[in-house]
Every structure is written in C-alpha cells, then in structure tokens.
Amino acid sequence: MTILPQPKKLKKTGGFVKTAGLDIVLTTKCDSRIFKAAQKLANEIFEETGIDPVITKVLGTPEPNGKIVIDCLNKKGEGYKLSARENGILITGDSLAGAFYGIQTLRQMLESCGEDIECCEIEDKPDMAYRGFYHDASRGRVPNLEGVFEMIDFLAYFKHNSYQLYIEHTFEFDEYKGIYKAFGYMTAEEIMQIDDYCYDNFVDFVPSLSSFGHLFRLLESKKYHHLCELDTYERRANPWINTMLHHTINASDPDSFELIASLINQYVPLFRSKYFNICCDETFDICMGKNQGKNKGELYLDFTLKIINHLKSLGKTVMMWGDIVLHHPETMDRFPDDMVMLNWNYNFNPPLHTVEQFAQQRFSQVVCPGTSCWNQFCENVPYAERNISKMVRKGAEYKVMGMLNTSWGDYGSICPMTCTVYGMVLGGALAWNSKTKVMCEKYDKAVSDIVYGDPSGETVKLIRKFVDVQSVFTWLDYCCAFFENRTLPWGDPEPLHNDSSIYIENAKRMYEIAEEFRRLPVQSRFTVDLRIQAEGLAIVNLRMARIIDGVTEIDEAKVEKWVERYSESWLRSDKRGELDAVLAAMRGKKFDVDYVITNA
Question: Which domains does the chain possess?
Fold first, then answer.
C-alpha cells in the first residue's frame, strides 16, 4: 500500500477486504462535509468495482459488517483510526477533521490496492497543527475557479489544512480600478466560492495581502505614486524585475495606513478564517527615499503594528513574513504574542538557527520552505526536498505551530502548478509525519505511484533527469540573457557563456526527455504538462544558442505548435494573466509587460 503522508502506525493483519458491495454508513455525528467526502469515496469505489455503494446515516455506531462505517468522537485534534477487516471497514476520527483524513487514507488505499484492500489497523495523527500551501496569484498566473478547486481537492487528499493566495493587484479592490482588469483578477464572489469549497474540505482559506512592500501596480499609478517611499529608480530592461523591486509604501505618511486599511476592510469580510497574512516582507526601500535617515527597524515596527492592531480590532489573528524582523532583532520582542511569524527561507541549506530564534519569542511560528519552482520550467526537486525537509524537521523539533509551503511565480510564472506537485506533497507529508524517510528511491516510487499514477517509478526518475538539464540553463537565465545580456538578475553583469554547442545539446536532451514523458505507460495532466515544459526548455536553449552564435536554426512553426499547447495548458487552470508576455519571450520578442498584457 502507498499512503502519503505515511501513517504513524500501520499494522497489516492478513487477508483482504472486498470493497465491492460495501455500503457507506455515517453516524449522526458526521456533518455535510463528511457526507461530501463519502460521496467522493463512493464514486471511486464505483469506478473501481462497477458497484455503486449506498450512503446512509444511522443512530449509534454499528459494527462494520458489510459496511464502511464512518464515526467521530467529537474530541480535539485531527487524528483517526482506520480498521480494515475482512468483513468491513471502520473509520473513527477524533474530530470531524480526523474522520475526513481517515476517508482520504481509505481513498489512497483504494487507489493503491484496487478493489481488494489489505486488512490492517491504522492509528494516525499529524505532528503539526497547521499544514499550509501558499499559491502566488499575482505574478503571471491568476487561477480560475476550476484550477483552485482542483488544487483544494489535491491538497486535502494529501492532508493539508490551509491554503493562501498571494494578492497584490489581482483582486477587484476599489483602489486598483483601471489596473486589475488588465492583468486577470479574482472577484469577491470567486473568493467566497473558494472559501466555501475550502470549508467543505477542512482547509482554512487564509487571506494574504501585500501591504507594505511589493506594491508595484498600486504605487506606479498616478493616484498613489506620491505614497511611494522611493520616487525615482532606474528602470531595468528586464520588465519582470521592475515589478518585483522597489515600491515600498511610505510608512510615515498617514494616508499610507488609510490606504492599506481600506484594502483590508474590503477583503476581510470574504473569509471565514481567523487569520490574515499581511505579508510585509522585502521592504527594500524603507528609509531609502522620503524617510532617509530614520531608523529602519523602528519605522517598520511602527507601521506593521498599526496594521496588526487594525486587524485585531476586526477580530483577526495576524500572520506576517519574518524576514525584516530577523534583520532587526531588536524589535522582535515588541511584536504582540497573539500573532504568527512566518519564518521563510528557500536556501539549499537554510539557516535553521532562525527557527530557534523565533521559538524563544511569545508569538507562534510557522516554518515556510519552498517548492523551488519559480524562475524554472519545472520544480527543482533535489533543491526543494533539501530545503523543505530541513525546514520542516527543524520546525517539528521545536514544536512550531506548522508549515506553510510556498510556490512563487516570479518572471511570469512559466511553471504550472502541475509541475510543482512533488514539493507540494513533500511539505504536507513531512508536516504530518516529520519522521518520513524522504530523498530515497522508496519515497520517489511512492510519489510516482500515488501522485502521478505510475507505480513503476519512472515518472519521478524522468523529472530528475529534466532537472539535471535545467540546472545548466533555467528560465531565469534565459530572461537575463535575452533582456539584458547578463547572467544574473542582481548586481553587476557577468559575461555570457560563449559556447552555443552547450545549449544545442541541452535542447536535444530536453526533446528526448519530452519524448520519454510521452511514452510513459500512464498519462495524466501532470505528465502532459511535464512534456510541454520540457519542450519549452528546449526552445529557450536554442534561442540562447542563437543569441551567442547568430546562426542556430529555430523551427518557428514548431514553436507555434508549442505555444498553442502551452496556452491550452495555462488556460485550463488559470486566467490569461501574463500569458502573452511569457509567449512573447518564448517567441524571442522583447516587450514591456504592461503593453503586452493591456493589448492582448
């Protein structure tokens, strides 16, 4: 059996239970959310066996003779017990959430074993109370409802219980009128629909809003430009860098707080969650312009406390990224003890002393690793698994509140969510069971089986081959070379490698890997997208060779066929967003992001 996250205790007892003919019985303690989860289970039993289970609800807790009985003890926690016997199955959740996770385990057992499930006794509960995923909805891709619902189904299946969408300009705020429609955006109605869908799947939908730094679209507008800390800056030839740098709000201007409070007031009512993530990370320009000469730590503390107190007055518990606080440790003990600090770091060897540093404070802490999918066609699995495992295990050692696994969309979000699921599942697996043995062939095979539907393990092996080639030349490398004739996005330019044969060979290998994805015996939306991404990396390698030697031939008709397939993939789960900007770069056409998007 393949089950992810791995249960804490699993004892096989011999024999098999036939799911064909088993009806599903809920006790009266089960609510509508458990009923909906039971319906999914019933549909999957029907697909596997051809027999449609009857779902009913009864008084008391019957014996599971010829039945799948689902019960709840109305206790605290998310633990559950699952007893698969030859005559039936009993799932007992400590709480409704526990019962829900027991159902997810049974669904995975059905997927792994088929209609005849091995008899066993499972006793399971999570290490971390908070197990979240962070989805960038502002840089490149803005998810559509179908894409979000698929994401929530996926997260719940692997026992995540929180979801955040990163929002800058991609919601219909009054202050962003005339801006958000050009970029693809979420409506209030969509947010409320997502909130309901998350609730049905025991996922806490936490609002996350950029409220200090990273306010490019807002502070570039004529109406609010006067609130930008830094009036002027050197605009770079790479349009995506410009959207990420500078544009910190002037923290000393009273109008700045009123503006942020207005955004918050419009957003808060749409969510059930008691939490609100104010972000407040990477305030690059604080005290670099209008507040030059002032104490950065004190000004940062003063402004964030205003936002925190405003949200507390609305009954919310504040989350915020902890990077600036770490740069100003003298302010750390002045933050309120009823908030949550999000401790992020995406390095291969993250500085784990920060976990201890935050653990010494009164406030709660969530460790925040990353899937390492940004700036690349496919997630960097070896890098991500190192970062995620180190951060989450250190968090478990200090008994932190939880884990928030992040996925960003820098440089137009070239990588779809379908190509970042290895890291996504890994974060949830370790947050549930920090002792899970990862970074080994056995775990890779389990992921290949339960995530990609490929028990042979070949899918994950191919992803690792993909990443090996990608490590030589990434989407970020291409953008830096294409727009600015440099190899690094920051600092002084470095000379480009002048051997075009390297990139021609990379392209050849990526086309071969794409063909290997096509030949896998099991095809899914994941493998289809991985093939598209592999071909995309081949194309930019050829464009790089052309930049160097001026003679490398590129089959533009083949590129257009790729554009068509990539666009179909993008629009399956996301609104148009910055798709046309990405396609322009893939076609070798330079552009201004605003022009491409507003004139698409």
Answer: 9-124 (3.30.379.10), 130-275+316-437 (3.20.20.80), 458-554 (no CATH)
